[in-house]
Structure formats: structure tokens, C-alpha cells
Amino acid sequence: MPSSAPGPTAPAPAFDDAPIGVFDSGFGGLTVARELAKALPRESIVYLGDSARCPYGPRTLQEVDGFVQQIGGWLVDRGVKMVVIACNTATAAGLAHAQRTFPVPVIGVVEPGARAAAHATRNNRVGVVATKATVESNAYTKAIRHLDAGITVFSTATPRFVEIAEQGIRMAEGPLENYTSLASKVYIRPAFEEIAREYLEPLRRAGVDTLVLGCTHFPLLKALIGGVMGREVTLISSSTEAARDVAEILARRSAYARADHEARYEFYTTGDDLEEFRGFGSRVFREPIDTVAHVDLV
Amino acid sequence: MPSSAPGPTAPAPAFDDAPIGVFDSGFGGLTVARELAKALPRESIVYLGDSARCPYGPRTLQEVDGFVQQIGGWLVDRGVKMVVIACNTATAAGLAHAQRTFPVPVIGVVEPGARAAAHATRNNRVGVVATKATVESNAYTKAIRHLDAGITVFSTATPRFVEIAEQGIRMAEGPLENYTSLASKVYIRPAFEEIAREYLEPLRRAGVDTLVLGCTHFPLLKALIGGVMGREVTLISSSTEAARDVAEILARRSAYARADHEARYEFYTTGDDLEEFRGFGSRVFREPIDTVAHVDLV
């Protein structure tokens, strides 16, 4: 047995109104925040988008690990009861370190998505679409095969999906004020479909029956990806699954917000264009983001 | 990407009335079967207790892996839609191999229990009680720290708990016909409490706030173990958690039994004393086991 000193055994609080901390390199993590808001409408959320240093993909894992430590610390200082690393690259780079550092539970998006896929596949052939960095980290393959050694994982880097999702959001018609009616509308240009077909063809040929959307941007492209893969393929959203895990952790720790607690959403960005974040973010979050504050971490 | 040939992508069946296969070296796995029957009352179960070769603990992992292959194959031949390895030693020895071998999902009891503990702990100090073989395999420590690298795991081998559970079941008063009234009554002798205190003292001193019952026999001792650990310590039953995982897998695959399906429970043992299995097993399963059939695997 380890010889470290025992910590205090605090009795379980029945409720905890503190917010959940969520962060990403930019907007993608807002799909996780959206799923949280849907599944846990009483929970407050503090969201930070590290737009100033976006994207994380091309950076070294060590550098991104440093960002995770810094942002996690900032969220913990703001009194969050949990931290969700809503970015696959940051999860691969810094999850374990963050779990060892911070006094609150920290989860990433990889394990929840991997677990859902391992449970869902019927033919033991699971596909993963993700950024190049995530595919190269092998994080999903390892996590899925850790749960079920009988599953073959087929991973494909689909770097342009981030750009397509962002373009599609920008091109969605109508003024920002109408964002709720645009809820699931990401504009799909024919050119986007061609790109998707090319990316996804190897996974179709491989006969996967389950496909993990291994980037928090990709749930925005569910219609596009699902259309190409066909209805018999189950799409797994890491964002939805991460929100489910948050719910389970809060339930197990009796740490839900009170029944009469009014959820508050706070948005921060390290970037300078607050109006851009507000407008674009509202469409991803599917609720009006009234104010965004700049935070200087860099 | 792997180059193996694509498998057929079968459309998801809406329902599947096939039974769930459950096995253990003896009676312990009946706590898993009991939790399954409680959580999923429409599901049929085929249970095999490998009493002729019980206990698995002192055997080599290679030998136990062979048993898992043999029993898993027997269950698959009986048409089960899933296999639950309801034994920690057998999970450590043969889960991955079984997942690679059998055409149906195979789960063990370690990962579900580890996951529940990682989600439940508030002070990041988790205890595990298990047989010597399970503790030495480090299976729980690895599984818990894979999910949350910030958790310290304190494991203690409690070999006599199996014997105490079985003695306590035998000593429970009243005729077998009254087993339902004995449902949660495992007779606790004062000597049992002394043994439990001695085993659990290091975990109490370590300040764990969550304790995994890492052997399928141990849920029978929940009252004894909980009494010694105190109410502020959350007890995690691997049996309950494994049943939850089965439910999730069936839900994700649309493989539940039909709403009007009448569950059938079949019990088999490799041992010779069918009456002993029937009487003792009924008390663990908490439902009358009408017939037990001998099966010759050895």
C-alpha cells in the first residue's frame, strides 16, 4: 500500500451549486457545454475558449499540457466543482497530469466516447474520425481496446472537418437573433459532401457499424457525416458522452446543484474578438451568449 | 488502418430474447445474476458455477484463461447474447482473450467496479478488498488509475471473506423454503467482525472514502464490511456495477428482451452436489432455484 498520509474523509455534501468548468482551444467545447446544459439544466457552467492559442493540434503535447495546467488552475480558482477538458488534443496531452494536480474531478472527452462505442458496436468494427493530432496519439484506439480487446478500430484524420463545421455555422442563414431556429442547421455545401465522402470512404469500406466523432467540433457535422455513412452506422458524439459522465459523477458524489438553483453560464475567451465569440458561440451553444469576457492567460 | 476484411454490418435488432450467460468458479457470481434479475427482470439468464474446479485463485492465470475459453464457448453454444465473467480472477486471467474469441460481447467485473469507484471518491483515496490473486494482479489499481490518475488505490487481500460469506449463508437461520425472508441475512459471528476489523484497519487508517468489494462473494458481507468501515465510506459492489454495464450494453445495441418475454433462469454446475448448489445458491440468488443440472466440462 502507498505510504502517503491519509486525507480527510469529508462527508458527502447533499448538493453543490458550484459551476462546472469546461474548456477547449476554441469553440468546439461549446458542444460539450450545450450537452451539459441540456442534460443538467440546473448546473452553472464556466466556459473558457483559448482562442488566442487555437488550434492546439500543431503544438507539442508538452506545450498543450502546460495550457491544461494553466487553464485548469484558472477554473479551479473560480471555484468549479469539476473540470471537463472538452478538447481531444488537450485530453491526450494533459488529462492524467491535471487529474494528479487539481483538487476536483477532471474528465476528458476520449474515455466517455470510447466506452460508448465499445458498448454500441455489434460487429466489433469501430471507426474514429478526429484531428491528425488525436489520431496520431492513438488515444481512442487504446481506450476502446482497453475496454474490449475484440474490437478493431479504424481511425481517419479528417482535418478539414473543423474548418467545414466553422464555415457551415457562419454560412447558416438568418440573423444571429434567430440562432435558436438555426439550432441544428449547419450549412452544407456540395463541396463539403465531396470532402466528407473522400474522408469517410475507407471507413465505409472497412464496414464499421459505429463511428466516434472524436473532436468536439464534429457533432456539428452529424447530418453531413451521418448522411455519408448511412443510417445503419451509429454515430457516437464524444460531447454527449462526456456530459453523461459528468452527470454520473455528480450523482455518485451527491454533488448536483440544488433543485431551485438557477443555472448561470459564464463565457471567457483568451482571444480579442469578443463579438465574434458571442455571435459564433451562440450558434454552437444554441442559446444566446449575452456577454463574453476576455481573460489574459498568455 | 488494419487490413482485415470487413464484416457484415447487420442492422440492429430491435429486441433479443436470448439469455445472458454468467459464470463464476462457484456461487459468488450468483450475486451478479441476482443484480441482473433485479435490474433487468425480462432477461433470461444461463448461469454456470464451475464448482468442480473452485477456487480459481490458487491456479495459474494460464490455466484459468483456459477455463474461461471453455466455459465461454459452452455458453455461446447455448445461444447467449452476452457473456459476463462474474469472477475477478477469471476476468484478470481471461477477459481480453475471451473478447477476441467470442462473437458476443464479453464483460468482466473489474472495469465496472473500478469506474464506479473512480466516479464516487471525493478525496481520491479508494480502497479495494479482494482475493489474494486479484490483489496481486493489480487489476483494480490499474483500471482505477487508468480512469483517474489522481486517485491513490489501497488494496488489501481478504482471503477469509469468501469463507465467512459462505459460512454466514449456511448459518442463516430458518429452512431453505424461507430463503426470501433471509434475503439479506448473512449470519455474522462476533469472530467474523474481528477478522473484518483486522483486515480493514489499514484501509480505515488510509482514510479511503470509497471501498470496492472486488470479489463477487463480498456483496453478501456488505453489512459486516459497512459496519466496520463506517457510514461515511461508500461501498461499491462490482456485482451491481457489472449488471448496470450489461443494461447499458443491451440498451446501446437495442438488444433487450421483448416486453412480454418471460425470463427463464437456468443453473448449471460442474460439481456433483446438485442439492447443495440448489439450497445454497437459492440463498445467494434470493429466488428459489428449482433445478440445477450437472454439466461435464472437466
TrEMBL record, chains A, B:
First-level EC class: isomerase
Keyword Cell inner membrane part of the UniProt annotation: no
Pathway in which this enzyme or protein is active: Cell wall biogenesis; peptidoglycan biosynthesis
Keyword rRNA processing attributed: no
GO molecular function: glutamate racemase activity
Role according to the record: Provides the (R)-glutamate required for cell wall biosynthesis.
Protein name: Glutamate racemase
